[in-house]
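Interim report, section 4.2 (structural modelling).
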Amino acid sequence: MTTQSPGLHTHVLDALGLEIAAGDCPPGRVLRTDELAQRFDVSRTVVREVIRVLESMHLVESRRRVGVTVRPTEEWNVYDPQVIRWRLAGSDRPRQLRSLTVLRSAVEPVAAGLAARHATAEQCAALTACALGMVATSRGQQLEGYLRHDIAFHRIVLDASGNEMFARLGDVVAEVLAGRTHHQVMFEDPDPAAVTLHVRLAEAVREGDAAGAERLTKEIAVGALHELDVLAP
Amino acid sequence: MTTQSPGLHTHVLDALGLEIAAGDCPPGRVLRTDELAQRFDVSRTVVREVIRVLESMHLVESRRRVGVTVRPTEEWNVYDPQVIRWRLAGSDRPRQLRSLTVLRSAVEPVAAGLAARHATAEQCAALTACALGMVATSRGQQLEGYLRHDIAFHRIVLDASGNEMFARLGDVVAEVLAGRTHHQVMFEDPDPAAVTLHVRLAEAVREGDAAGAERLTKEIAVGALHELDVLAP
DNA sequence: GAAACCCATTACATACGACTTATTCAAGAG
DNA sequence: CTCTTGAATAAGTCGTATGTAATGGGTTTC
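Predicted structure of the assembly:
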């Protein structure tokens, strides 16, 4: 998905991005383009393009005569899906999941309220279908299927809000849900209460009940946060 | 601030980014690296680095034999501060301001609630100072000074929330506030009610009143949305 | 005549080497 | 001790050459 083509550029970018996001290169560390070219066995051209991309993500800063310095975490473009993926693959994945879940708890209720007002008939139908799919896969170790419906559900709500900033968080939410499912052991079936909440949320949106949709989404978010508290220190 | 050095790369990137964000290059339009190199009178190397950066922002897609195609708006990384700046400079600035203000109305109340719980003494002091600064500049055509305090105020709240995703929205909020102030005619003094709300919000955070902070921030957001409704169609 | 196959064209992808420029650091002059 | 100056350094820029994949047309085949 991310690596559309196994090009040289993509490979080096991913490797470097992962290293930096994982903290292997602490802030202030300087990288030399020549060294990187040698290390990855690519030309300086490719390295420079990668550096430029990392620079646009504010992960590094390139200055003459000094080299490429890793910037402190607070300056990274943490909303870049690529950066999110790199960080979720690293060691502080729990902290990252918590930050993102708190963000979800702020955004999704408002988005759901807007969705209740603006959702089209097609979106309502799709939402109900996803909720049904979640019910159908909620028992019997079908976590992968459940995850797929869960992701689609939240993406539709964000899209239906009619706000493009919300809509573009669909990828972020997908990463969070996938990360949560794949992180913890997959022996447990999803929380039945959460399934019920999703079904009722689909109803609320269909009926245009903005306040109800917002409240139900808040409950879902609280459940997600609580789940994190239980499973992560 | 953004353009630290008037390098060739930065110049071309800004020019192309602005063009695309402004919609001068509609989605599907193909650009040729050779043409761009000629147009900007730079080498293909520079153009390719720029293209790579635009590609990482999902503004364009580069494919062999076909060229660099502009991607549809829905796929852009609209949380990239650079993209936000480009779009705010373009023609659909009102729409953009509305989207971002709705995002603020979702995020900032929750952030304020968290800030009331986690703010340090220094942050509380700085918040109060900003509120005082807003009061001091709220009359007599001192909009620039008011804006500076307003931006600092919201940035502190987002920082004090302790959530890095919220904290990183400080730049976005700054762009929105600056865009709003510089967009509308600057003859009018800021809304006195908004000033009062900020003062009370600083108090609520200092007293650790999370619910109050959240409610006050919601009121500020409602005011901002209403202001947009009045000034933009 | 339609579908499958092949090949030449095209524009990006990668590489390499030369030169430029800004920045730093240190040595030397005042 | 401060300021100036200059040498060293690593990124910035450029031009060119070659690799590579996707497209479009032409040919073959059934």
